Amino acid sequence: MSSGNRSEAVDVQKSYEVRTYGCQMNVHDSERLSGLLEDAGYVRAPAGADGDADVVVFNTCAVRENADNKLYGNLGRLAPMKTKRPGMQIAVGGCLAQKDRDTIVKRAPWVDVVFGTHNIGKLPVLLERARVQEEAQIEIAESLEAFPSTLPTRRESAYAAWVSISVGCNNTCTFCIVPALRGKEKDRRTGDILAEIEALVSEGVSEVTLLGQNVNAYGSDIGDREAFSKLLRACGAIEGLERVRFTSPHPRDFTDDVIAAMAETPNVMPQLHMPMQSGSDTILKAMRRSYRQERFLGIIEKVRAAMPDAAISTDIIVGFPGETEEDFEQTMHAVREARFANAFTFQYSKRPGTPAADMEGQIPKAVVQERYMRLSALQEAISWEENKKQVGRTLEVMVAEGEGRKDGSTHRLSGRAPDNRLVHFTKPAQEVRPGDVVTVDITYAAPHHLLAEGAPLGVRRTRSGDAWGARTAAAAKPAGVMLGLPGIGAPAPLPAASAPGCGRD
């Protein structure tokens, strides 16, 4: 067997399936896991394989209270399938693996590999070791071994890409276990980030999303408080890069220089997702969020002054321990004032291992549900009102893949406006590919999407559309060389300048 990244050709081609739960960080980590497995000679199982693969990888999330129940339920469903399929392997990684470690194999002894958030690059080696030694391999690193963007990556999109600029988090929010599982913030070198983006653009990517646990805290690890705004401006100088987004920023670090960079850099999109979590100063203090309602709304006001058309979204937790009706009304007030384009609202659930899980004043489920419904109704009305303001506007929409579930029956296509609003539009007579840009007039607004019912005003074919076409054509060709079992030894990292990359929490 070869000692490099790839094995010698064998008669049987091994397949893999990666199942992802949780945040954008996990989504992009799964792109890396797929890249590692393909680099080791595996091929992706067909869509809908549902466990019918030689290797099934679970990339887990530990944020939800029932995350472990969901994992073990899925593992249980695979147990009989593994019994019937000799040589099948199951791996569990991600935040829950980092947290539970030995517990996973004790509860599901048919699992072959458990790996953590800091050593995803070891997956092919651990699978090979488990196969040779015929016993489970558990390897959890306590700190980052290498920045993940140096790993091979199988990007899900030909026209848009995640790019990690940092990993980890220095905050201590009482509802969040992520810092304990992802570690302290570690920033990438700016030059490496820009080199990766340039490489992606050369491959046809026209939109990147910069990712970090607290993306705008970038620079704290390298001692430059304005590093994030400088990075945004540097992205503006990359020829061929049409759209830049980022997620998720923290209000504590959202400074005026970032707002100025957003407003003054043409390819930074007029979109901001900034988690508020609560509008109550009392609850924000209990959450250990380092801002208060006035500070948060002040940021929103500054952003709107600099970018009047910006679409602002947020995250809100309802029913945090100790939340009174007055606290909840403060959240409702903040939502009315902020007028978010949309909000991801969550009913508080205990995160095992977090301070909030042991706090007094846990709110009864019925109360949390009732407040959640009231908040959702308010935000739905605001979202609809804000979307109605888009009617009559002419927008450039980047055609997306898989965004419109009804496109086939409605004879429409779908894509994203510069502010990231979802737009369904009439299919033009000429061919349009994901990554191409269509100019449309908005004629109707619903709470969660816009419609452009007339014929598009124009279609711009792009390098991204070309890249999508090339990928689609390549995928349609039958496989050539049959590759097999992964080679022994850690995969050689790609150069930073050519490594695609990354995700969000």
Structure in words:
- By secondary structure, this protein is an alpha/beta fold.
- It has four domains: 15-139, Rossmann fold, CATH 3.40.50; 155-269, Transcription Regulator spoIIAA (2-Layer Sandwich); 304-389, 2-Layer Sandwich (Transcription Regulator spoIIAA); 393-473, OB fold (Dihydrolipoamide Acetyltransferase, E2P), CATH 2.40.50.
- It has 15 helices and 21 strands.
- The strands form five sheets. The protein has a seven-stranded mixed sheet with strand order 19-20-17-16-15-18-21.
- Strand 13, helix 12 (325-338) and strand 14 (342-347) form a beta-alpha-beta unit.
- Helix 8 runs parallel beside helix 9 and helix 12 packs parallel to helix 13.
- The protein is globular and about 65 Å long.
- The two termini are 39 Å apart.
Structural topology:
Elements lengths: L14 E6 L3 H16 L3 E2 L10 E6 L6 H18 L4 E6 H6 L1 H6 L5 E3 L7 H11 L3 E3 L20 E5 L1 E2 L10 H5 L3 E2 L2 H13 L4 E5 L15 H9 L7 E5 L8 H9 L6 E3 L7 H7 L5 H14 L4 E8 L6 H14 L3 E6 L17 H24 L5 E6 L7 H4 L1 E5 L5 E5 L10 E5 L2 E2 L4 E3 L5 E3 L2 H14 L29
Parallel strand pairs: 1-2, 1-3, 3-4, 4-5, 5-6, 7-10, 10-11, 12-13, 13-14, 17-20
Antiparallel strand pairs: 8-9, 15-16, 15-18, 16-17, 18-21, 19-20
Helix pairs in contact: 8-9, 12-13
